[in-house]
Amino acid sequence: MPSHYGSKPASKKPANKKKTPKGFHRMPDGKLMKGETHGSRPMKKKNSPKKKTGEITIGGKKIKFEEGALRRALKVPANEKLMMGDLKKANKTEIGKEFMYDGKKFKMTNLMKKRITFAITLMKMK
User: For the whole prediction, is pTM greater than 0.85?
Assistant: First the structure.
C-alpha cells in the first residue's frame, strides 16, 4: 500500500498549458494578461471632496447628518428645492419597491427611507 505522507498533491493546472510570454501573466481561468502580476502599479487615491456634516438638536438629542446626502441620492441639483409633497409621496413607498422622483426611477432602501423621513422632519421645523 503506497504512503501518501509527503507526496505532492495533484496539480490543478492543465497538462496542455501554453507558455506565457515575458511581460505577461495568466489568470486562473487561462486568460493572458499584460504585466508580470497584478498590483505592480500603486493605486491612485481618488480626490473626493470632503462631505460636509451638520448637527441639529431635536428633542434634546443631538443628531449628526451628512448635508446633501438625500439630494445626491435623488440626483437633484443644488439649485433646485426638494418638494415636501414629492418627498411625502416617495416616503409611502415600501422598502424594496421602486418609486419615481422628478421623472427618475429609484429603489427605496432603508437608508433612503431614513433620509426622506429626516428631510420631511427638518422641513416641518422651518
Answer: no
